[in-house]
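B., you asked whether I could sanity-check this one before it goes into the benchmark set. Here's the sequence:
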Amino acid sequence: MPERDEPVRPDLNNPVFQRDLLGLPKADRHAALDMLAKLRQLTWLQVYRDKGLHWEKITSVKPPAGIDALYSLRITQARRAVAYRDGAFVRLLSIPPDHDAT
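And here's what the prediction gave me:
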């Protein structure tokens, strides 16, 4: 497992995540981009402890093959993103429209 004080490297290349991000209302999209900028400045230990991001393991969904676990993190005040950790990368997968969907 990579070091906990390693800088986080956000991966925004998933087409579903991109569609969801670009489909957010303007204010939410700007808030999400601010959060992503913040995420780039953090270490993994800071992500785990950050009360604003609220990094949580999703236990209600079995992760796809090759992924240990899925997580949710707060991307705006009202929205959460689904992601997983891959070494130093946080691979962002989607921004479900319903908070309960994460």
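One thing to flag: The chain has one domain: 9-95. Otherwise nothing jumped out at me.
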